[in-house]
Structure formats: C-alpha cells, structure tokens
From TrEMBL:
Keywords: ATP-binding, Nucleotide-binding. This is ABC transporter ATP-binding protein. Residues 6-225 form the ABC transporter domain. CDD domains: ABC_DR_subfamily_A. One of its GO terms (molecular function) is ATP binding. InterPro entries: AAA+_ATPase, ABC_transporter-like_ATP-bd, ABC_transporter-like_CS, P-loop_NTPase.
Amino acid sequence: MTETVIEAEGLGLRHGRRGGWALRDCSFRLPAGRVCALVGPNGAGKSSLLGLAAGLVLPTEGTLRTVPRETLAYVGQNKPLYPQFTVGETLRMGRELNPGRWAATTAERIVAAGELDPRTKVRALSGGQRTRVALALALGKRPGLLLLDEPMADLDPLARRELMGTLMADAADNGTSLVMSSHILTELEGACDHLLLVDRGRIRLSGPIDAIGEAHRLLSGPAAASAQLAAHTVVESRTTGRGLTALVRLRGPVDSGVWQTEHPTLEEILLAHLRSPDAPSLTTEDSLVSTGVRA
Ligand SMILES: Nc1ncnc2c1ncn2[C@@H]1O[C@H](COP(=O)(O)OP(=O)(O)OP(=O)(O)O)[C@@H](O)[C@H]1O
C-alpha cells in the first residue's frame, strides 16, 4: 500500500467543553503525493480538520496520524506572520528556522513574482500579498505535506493562477502532498486529484476524484419506475411531472430500455450530497482506513 500522509479514525472535535461537535466520527486516509481538495459549505469543519492535521488542536475523540512536524507546513486563514518584520526578514527567519532544508530560491521566486520589495514591512502588505509571503514561507520549508486553508480567497485571478501553478509544479517536482480547502469547488477542480467532502462535521466523500466520479451515475426515466432504484444507492432523486432524475451509486445493471444513464459532473455529485444530508457517505478503496497502517 502507498505511504499515508494523513490517517484519521473516529476523529471528533469539540471547540470548548460546551461547544457542539465541529467534527464527528471522521475516518479517512490520504495517500502520499495527492493534491487533495477539502471542500464543504461554511461551518462544515474544514478549518477544524486542517487545525487537527496541523497539530494546532487535539482531537476530542479518535485519532489522527500525520507526517513528522518538521515536514509539515500549514497556512491558516489568518496568515500568521510577524507584522513588524520586513518581507526579507521573514524569509531569513524561514531559513534560520529550517536549517539544512530551506528552499531559498523557491521562496524568493514566489515573493519576486508578486513584485514585493524585500524591505517592505509585512504590516504594510495587502491581504493577497501576505498570502504570497505565507506561501513562500511554507514552500520554502520543503514540506512533505502542505496544508492550506482557503489559500486562494484573497488573491486576484492572475495571482491565483500563478500561485496555483507554483503549488502544482512543487507538488509534481518534490512529491509534496497538498490539502487545500475551499467552499468553492471550481476554485480547486482541475488542480486536484483527490477529494474530501466535509458537511456538518462528517466526511461525506473521500477518495480519488476519478473513482468518486466513476462511482456515480445520473439516471433519468419515468417516475413510475422509481421502485427499480431500490437496487442502487440513491443519493438524491427528484420528480418533475412524470419524469424522475436520480443521482445513484450503481450496485448492479440498469435497464437501458427504461433509464437514460449519464456521467454526472463532480459539482453535480457534491451538490446532490449537500442537498441530501442523509445519503450514505462514500469512502473509496484506497482512502479506507486500514488498521495497522502507520503514517
Ligand atoms: N474557536 C472556535 N470556538 C468555537 N466554535 C468554533 C471555533 N472554530 C470553529 N467553531 C465551530 O466549529 C464548526 C466548524 O467550523 P470550521 O471553521 O471548522 O468550518 P469551515 O468549514 O472551515 O467553515 P468556513 O468555510 O466558513 O471557513 C462551526 O460550527 C464553527 O462555529
């Protein structure tokens, strides 16, 4: 089995003793070398999951294993940087904190691509410019696993495209595993090959994007034939007049004389799951937690 960079089992998190569960009963495995989209609506638990993976908070229940701390980098939504440092001092700090592994050229190239003057104080930077410095610091660390909480949120479209390209190139060249959160799938689709859909603190979908796509079909047919759907796992079904459309996971053959079958888009799959909170979740083969596998 491929190396694992995150393995969660029965993971749960409560913020404070009186708080509700931000995450509950989450089990999944992220194989090394994947670029993973962590998607879900506002308040779903994405930041909580990244905070747990980054070791910023401890689980209330269950376990999460990940890579050693020195090979992990995390860029949170608030981009914690020292405001009184200049950009140049921030990169020097990166070098001093990561002796022997600091990728000076990578970090400097990211900063230079944003035309940032190394003498500018961090507090004088815009939100998007701070994101750039935070990404330079994170990639400079040459992480084995890079966790990014809504990295693209305050970047303009050009910077977004350029930095996404830099992240992808780094992942390809150095085998960096990436987890990027967003509540907008289209922001990450195309760049990612693995998906974690979190909703109301639960993992709803987990696995390679190809496998998740392949597992689902969109069926259209007469509402009168709806009983036939019981042979499959129905994620969502909608009736319009005499017609019925259903997003299903097939468990056997479909009568092609009755149903028209299509491959749904990833967005259709996600939206159907979000609209149907009671639909069973799906964890595809290689992201199943197998007891005994060490990270
Ligand atoms: N520090 C905290 N104290 C108390 N509750 C919190 C705290 N942080 C998050 N929560 C709660 O935990 C749940 C999950 O929040 P989280 O920030 O992980 O969601 P998210 O998916 O990242 O959302 P968004 O897309 O809006 O950033 C929410 O109900 C939120 O109110």
